Structures are given as structure tokens and as C-alpha cells.
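Quick one, C-alpha cells below. Sequence please?
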């Protein structure tokens, strides 16, 4: 018996698995804004002025690693699975 999955199901599964692994500890500017309470443009301005850690380039995109944020005194508590 074969199971027919729709394109939406495959896309949804790909999104879920993409977050697992080593990339789960990298955050976009929007994610960092949510963590810090700052607007993402404020974060980018602080990076230019030297008052915030510089992002790394991960797969061609700017991302902040959790260790860089923690070194700057920004605390992040990883959410637990419900």
C-alpha cells in the first residue's frame, strides 16, 4: 500500500526538518529582535556602530549564533517541546 503525500505535506515536513540540527542555534534579525525586544533595524544599526555582535554568514544569509548573543550578555532560553 503506497501513501500519497501532497506537495504541501512534503513542504511542511521539509520546513520542520530544516530547523533541526546545527542550524537551530542560528537566528535571523527578526528572531533576535523577538528575543531582545529591539526592532530589527535597531539591531542592524547597533551592529554598524559596534554595539552588537556581528552576524555570521550561514548559507548566504546573515545569522547570529546563540554563543555570540550569549557572549554579548543576551540571554536566550530554548523553548521546550510541548
Amino acid at each position: 500500500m503506497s501513501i500519497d503525500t501532497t506537495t504541501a505535506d512534503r513542504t511542511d515536513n521539509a520546513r520542520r526538518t530544516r530547523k533541526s540540527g546545527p542550524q537551530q542555534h542560528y537566528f535571523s534579525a527578526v528572531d533576535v529582535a523577538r528575543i531582545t525586544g529591539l526592532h530589527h533595524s535597531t539591531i542592524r544599526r547597533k551592529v554598524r556602530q559596534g554595539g552588537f555582535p556581528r552576524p555570521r554568514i550561514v548559507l548566504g544569509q546573515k545569522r547570529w549564533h546563540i554563543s555570540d548573543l550569549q557572549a554579548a550578555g543576551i540571554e536566550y532560553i530554548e523553548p521546550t517541546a510541548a
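The helical segments are 7-18, 29-36, 40-49, 66-71. Residues 1-5, 10-20 have pLDDT under 50 and may be disordered.
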